[in-house]
Amino acid sequence: MQMKPAQPVQSPDTRATMTLQEPENPGQNTGSNLPAPELLKDIATRPPMALSDFESLADANNPTLKQANAIVRKSQEQARQAGLYPNPSIGYQGEQIRGGSYGGGEQGGFVQQTIVLGGKLGLRRNLYEQQKRSDLIGVTEQTYRVHNDVQQAFYDALTAQAMVQLHQRLLGVALDAVETVHQLSNVGQADAPDILQTEVEAEQAKVEYVTAQRQYLQTFRALAALAGKGDLPATSLHGELEKTPDLNADEMVNSIAADSPTVKRAQQEAEVAQARLKDARRESVPDLQLRAGEQYNGEQVSENPTKAAGAQSFATAGINIPLWNRNQGNVGAAKAEIERARQDVTREQLSLRQQAAPLAQSYLAARFEVDRYKTQLIPRAARAYELYLKKYQNMAQAYPQVLVSQRTLFQLQISYLMALHDVWRSAIALQNYTLTGGLDHPTSSGSSSTMINLPNNSGNE
């Protein structure tokens, strides 16, 4: 079967056939003769769309890609916040305050600042920067997910469009057969069973034609949703269904296990775990607390004349001693997280091989089917139908055998289209690292916390 490139879906010739009748009983009519509904008649007036059109729409409108980029911006802002220096404090201080004739006491103000030591701010910032790198890989990963689903949906719809065209031709053949059998009945070469049987085939062809149109509309709606334009009017599609990709399936499996964004993200998560361990180890380094101020001392230092001590300064400095709590529990947890992250890389690689290997075999099997249908089965069936039809027209063959050969031919053509569809689905999945979920919520490497290094804390997270 040599298929032409997909064209705008045209309305089949659903012309009215001759009035249903039995030559032996002219007054007997069975059923009615209604044309098949034309559900796609408006599509031909709109320009066809190609796969690249839907990918461009998805890149601009699919909400998950915008979410993935928002996650990157979130990690970037978290990194900025984590590295900010703690704010200074100011306050009032008073001691031994007395009134009356005694006077005295000390009153004044102070400034206090925490000096973060050990490079902890840089390590905290680096943790979120590593998470940002993971989230950037997540954008690439989500892009593959969206493109995979859009491409799969496009070829689902392209196959459905080809099915409409195939059932359109089948309907035309069936309607021609009805006219032929009526003409033969007029000269006494066909009887009532022949007429009724051909009309049954025509009505069945109408049902299948309408079903094919509904299937096309369904697949187009799914494609439009993935492209982020759920209200996009249905159009015809431009694509080459028979021009299937030629892949080395075994190499694709190895490439997926080595180069998938999922694997790269798992490897980056191991880097995040390493950054968390460095941060946990350094958190035991104490910060330096500095405090200085100026105050007035009202204590009298002489009685005649009366004189107060007056202005004086003070300063303090101190650190916590990491005696009991050296953050050892968090350090141990960070080490365990590194081991978990490293094993997750291996797990992802094995999982991808588990998914890709069956796809590779499905791709090869479908390619073999396509070749056999195209070069062996359909040519034979087409020739058999042609010969049976010629014999019938020469009144040397019963019509039921023509129907059987016709059904066989069209069923093989349907199977050919489905085999092409299977080739495309398997190939697209392999080319996109088996990633699916074009409308699934993308995940973040870190948390969504907005409580990082708050302005009113002492400098710790």
From TrEMBL:
<dbReference type="GO" id="GO:0015562">
    <property type="term" value="F:efflux transmembrane transporter activity"/>
</dbReference>
<feature type="region of interest" description="Disordered">
    <location>
        <begin position="1"/>
        <end position="36"/>
    </location>
</feature>
<feature type="region of interest" description="Disordered">
    <location>
        <begin position="84"/>
        <end position="104"/>
    </location>
</feature>
<dbReference type="Pfam" id="PF02321">
    <property type="entry name" value="OEP"/>
</dbReference>
<feature type="compositionally biased region" description="Polar residues">
    <location>
        <begin position="8"/>
        <end position="33"/>
    </location>
</feature>
<dbReference type="InterPro" id="IPR010131">
    <property type="entry name" value="MdtP/NodT-like"/>
</dbReference>
<protein>
    <submittedName>
        <fullName>Putative Outer membrane efflux protein</fullName>
    </submittedName>
</protein>
<feature type="compositionally biased region" description="Polar residues">
    <location>
        <begin position="442"/>
        <end position="461"/>
    </location>
</feature>
<dbReference type="InterPro" id="IPR003423">
    <property type="entry name" value="OMP_efflux"/>
</dbReference>
<feature type="region of interest" description="Disordered">
    <location>
        <begin position="441"/>
        <end position="461"/>
    </location>
</feature>
